[in-house]
Amino acid sequence: MSGIVTVMSTRDDHNIWPGISCTDAHAVRAWLAGIGFDEGILVPGEKPDEIMHSEMIWPEGGRVMVHSQCAGDLAGGPGTCSCYIVTADPDAVYDKARAAGARIVRELEDTDYGSRGFTVSDPEGNTFSFGTYAGTEG
To answer: CA 104 to CA 102: how far, in whole Å?
Structure first.
């Protein structure tokens, strides 16, 4: 990708929260906790083991909403979400992901645009990419 100029962002706004629809939202929350997310709010659904709404908090900023799949769900269904999470230490997150048994989709690598990162998938097939690239100003 020659010709790309990367300017690392100093912004600290984290106002976009992806939502993940899951067959087993509790298992996905546990998996996310295993790779370094903190557990946030959990609103149970009407059925046992159902989650109406929950949040998993990334310690470096931002959140992912995790809920049980339901009728009329606007999300594409389990396994259709892809998230990118900025981290200052992708090597440490990679080690946690491997220890948690994550399926590695893209190995830890340095890119030609100045980022270091990797991609894993959760138990339902959603992908999570972690990297140092924080976007550009603008």
So the answer is: 6
Q: Which pLDDT score is estimated for 72?
A: 58
Q: DSSP secondary-structure letter at 9?
A: -
| pLDDT band, very low/low/confident/very high, at 7 (cuts 50, 70, 90) | very low
Alpha-carbon gap, residue 32 to 41, rounded angstroms: 14
- Token pair, residue 63, equals 């959140």
Q: Does a structural domain hold residue 4?
A: no
Q: What is the pLDDT confidence band of residue 114, given thresholds at 50, 70 and 90?
A: confident
- What pLDDT was estimated at residue 70? 73
Q: Is 37 inside any structural domain?
A: yes
Phi-psi domain of 36 (left: phi exceeds 0; alpha: psi -120 through 50; beta: other): left
- E strands present in 1-138: 19-22, 38-44, 51-57, 63-68, 82-86, 103-110, 116-121, 127-131
Q: What's the number of domains the chain is made of?
A: 1
